[in-house]
Specification:
heterodimer, A: about 450 residues, mainly alpha, two-stranded antiparallel ribbon, 13 helices, about 5% strand, globular, B: about 260 residues, about 75% helix, about 0% strand, transmembrane (chain B), notch signaling pathway (chain B), Gamma-secretase subunit APH-1 (chain B), protein-macromolecule adaptor activity (chain B), transmembrane helix (chain B)
Chain lengths: ~450, ~260
């Protein structure tokens, strides 16, 4: 899922919508303050109601309040489009990097393309004699996996609702520990094996310890933004590699399709778990789970609010209720929030200067994009065209999703469009384009 | 085949495109998005033409012999038609998007149609070049001897140069095409289509590389000169640029017109 991050600067301590507007035309602060109380309810109300009229009315109110009367509502969408291009690139780069890491590993390290058993979440084997049986097994595997995901999400939502924060934080820390230490150790071992490089255990432990410890600090506490982003990309890539290795062929494709449908349902339906998570977080005015969202803007700490104590009375910045799903541990998807985290009780925080607005994307989206492209690279018969086609399709899907985000300004699932395009292009390129291009290349014909 | 061949051919084929990307496109996010969208449109056009070729093959039941050759020729020519159609479709989309962008900010940052023509041409070209050449490139890293069965040993070099010329041609075709659409000179579209068909059809002469490559490069130079004048260049501005007397000769310094 994608969110816009509200800016933290002084006169723009408001939610994403008005902040985008106020950059164009400075609005009177008192007007925005009075709007703020209604805004939250309106936002919550907009979640439950799925009409567009409220949107327009809301926009109209804000327009009038902001001192640009009479501007037609359609213009606001175009205003956000101007901001969108930079944010799109701010998301293209990490998604591309993650995919490049995964594809490079798949193409060079044999370990991740070898079949060495399956996860317990996909118990049915695909080594069956008939096609029908194989299809049935993959569908069953998908059902089991998706139900595990649903159960985990609901469990998480319940934990959050009943304020078991310690449990959640412990869970998150455990899974980051596992990713940063165990999976990194395995990955490093396989890479060293591939390139036949010898490394002694003391050096290995020192390297892994440093990598993991700095990663834990950066992700869960404070660190330079670039380092945090790099670590998030790396753990997404590691997770994606695990999925590519342990998910059987057909199950992987069916799971990808099913997970994008689930994402759509969970984020947009009124009773979806992710939406409820967002609403609960909104009601309490607190961030949900830091460190499971990739944030593309300049914040020093994920989860720390920079509030100007002299600005409005509200402690929180109303954020954009956009959720992203992400997986924080091996097969245990936890769905963290995605909005600008604001912690209660920090009224004395210093303001950050010049904080840019950014977009946030959940790590689960990174993981599944990379799984798609990695699977295309692993099974494409040594063919790069399929991989590239999937890559371009996913980027275009992300672009369209961001466009919709700019238009609708609410939490949107980032998986459906990209995964749909990716799947369409994978199957059509593998079966239609590949023979055509191979024949052309062998005769050296150019189109 | 060694790493030298791999890197040499890779840079021959993709060097200019990479340079164009790095110096003119990479700095502006909107241009990157339009580039990737152009690549996507080319990909869709390839998909559709592959679909038609596949269906034609199914209909003729995969008979070997001259049927396959004719089918391939048909596939190539059809693919050129479809590519140009999609270039036109992309032009229409860009026109709508550009009008939308202009209405927001009449002052700056809305890319001009000429810039979009260049970006879309580059997008088409990069995708076309990559799809044509990347599998060959990856094979060149592995072991083997080129032309051991009596084929030409210049396979990789020829492919690299051909890829380069195709990429550059797409850039120039894009500029000329969009300008013709803007000025409603429909005969120019026909000329672009015909030159594209000519360049593709010439590749049927492979492996007689000489005439194929030379004529492709001549066509490219002609298209380059045409695109230069269409994009607003003149002999005077070229002279100023070459003598470094032009104050803003680098593309990114120019304001959109």
């Amino acid at each position: 899922m994608l969110t816009f991050m509200a800016s933290d600067s002084e006169e723009e301590a408001c939610d994403e919508r008005t902040s985008l507007m106020s950059a164009e035309s400075p609005s009177p602060r008192s007007c925005r303050e009075s709007q703020r109380g209604e805004e939250d309810q309106e936002n919550a109300a907009q979640w439950r109601s799925q009409e567009n009229e409220e949107d327009v009315e809301d926009d109209a109110d804000q327009y009038i309040c902001s001192g640009v009367p009479g501007r037609p509502p359609g213009l606001e969408e175009e205003l956000t489009l101007k901001y969108g291009a930079k944010h799109v690139i701010m998301l293209f780069v990490p998604v591309t990097l993650c995919m490049v890491v995964v594809v490079a590993t798949i193409k060079s390290v044999r370990f991740y393309t070898e079949k060495n058993g399956q996860l317990i979440y996909t118990p049915f084997t695909e080594d069956t004699p008939s096609v029908g049986q194989r299809l049935l097994n993959s569908v069953l595997n998908t059902l089991i996996m998706i139900s595990v995901i649903v159960v985990m999400t609901i469990f998480l939502v319940l934990l959050y609702k009943y304020r078991c924060y310690k449990f959640i934080h412990g869970w998150l820390i455990m899974s980051s520990l596992m990713l940063l230490f165990l999976f990194t150790y395995i990955y490093l071992g396989e890479v060293l094996k591939t390139y036949n490089v010898a490394m002694d255990y003391p050096t290995l432990f020192l390297t892994v310890w440093n990598f993991g410890a700095v990663g834990m600090v950066c992700i869960h506490w404070k660190g330079p933004l670039v380092l945090q982003q790099a670590y998030l990309i790396m753990i997404s890539a590691l997770m994606a590699l695990v999925f590519i290795k342990y998910l059987p062929e057909w199950s992987a494709w069916v799971i990808l399709g099913a997970i994008s449908v689930y994402d759509l349902v969970a984020v947009l339906c009124p009773k979806g778990p992710l939406r409820m998570l967002v609403e609960t977080a909104q009601e309490r005015n607190e961030p949900i789970f830091p460190a499971l969202i990739y944030s593309s803007a300049m914040v020093w700490t994920v989860g720390m609010a920079k509030l100007d104590p002299s600005s409005q009375g509200a402690l929180q910045l109303p954020y954009d209720p956009e959720m992203e799903d992400s997986y924080d541990s091996f097969g245990e998807p936890s769905y963290p929030d995605v909005f600008e985290p604001t912690l209660p009780g920090y009224p004395g925080e210093e303001l950050e200067e010049e904080e840019e607005r950014g977009v946030k994307l959940g790590l689960g989206d990174f993981i599944f994009y990379s799984v798609l492209v990695g699977k295309a690279a692993a099974t494409g018969n040594g063919d790069w065209n399929t991989t590239l086609a999937c890559f371009v399709a996913i980027l275009i899907g992300l672009c369209l999703t961001l466009l919709l985000l700019a238009v609708f300004k609410k939490a949107l699932p980032a998986l459906p469009i990209s995964i749909t395009f990716g799947l369409i292009f994978y199957f059509s390129t593998d079966n239609l384009v590949r023979p055509f291009m191979d024949t052309l290349a062998s005769h050296q014909l150019y189109i | 085949m060694t790493a030298a061949v791999f890197f040499g051919c890779a840079f021959i084929a993709f060097g200019p495109a990479l340079a164009l990307y790095v110096f003119t496109i990479a700095t502006e996010p909107l241009r990157v998005i339009f580039l990737i969208a152009g690549a996507f449109f080319w990909l869709v056009s390839l998909l559709i033409s592959s679909l038609f070729w596949f269906l034609a093959r199914l209909i003729t039941n995969n008979k070997d012999g001259p049927t396959q050759k004719y089918l391939l020729i048909f596939g190539v020519l059809l693919s050129v038609f479809v590519q140009e159609t999609f270039r036109f479709a992309y032009y229409r989309l860009l026109k709508k998007a550009s009008e939308g962008l202009k209405s927001i900010s009449p002052d700056e940052a809305a890319p001009s149609m000429r810039l979009l023509a260049y970006v879309s041409g580059l997008g088409f070209g990069i995708m076309s070049g990559v799809f044509s050449f990347v599998n060959t490139l990856s094979n060149s890293l592995g072991p083997g001897t080129v032309g051991i069965h009596g084929d030409s040993p210049q396979f990789f070099l020829n492919s690299a140069f051909m890829t380069l010329v195709i990429i550059l041609l797409h850039v120039f075709w894009g500029v000329i095409f969009f300008d013709a659409c803007e000025k409603k000179k429909w005969y120019v579209l026909l000329i672009v289509l015909l030159t594209h068909l000519l360049v593709s059809a010439q590749t049927f002469l492979n492996p007689h590389y000489g005439i194929n490559l030379v004529s492709a490069y001549i066509i490219m130079v002609v298209m380059a000169i045409w695109a230069f004048f269409v994009a607003g260049g003149s002999c005077r501005s070229l002279k100023l640029c070459l003598l470094c007397q032009d104050k803003d000769f680098l593309l990114y310094n120019q304001r959109s017109r």
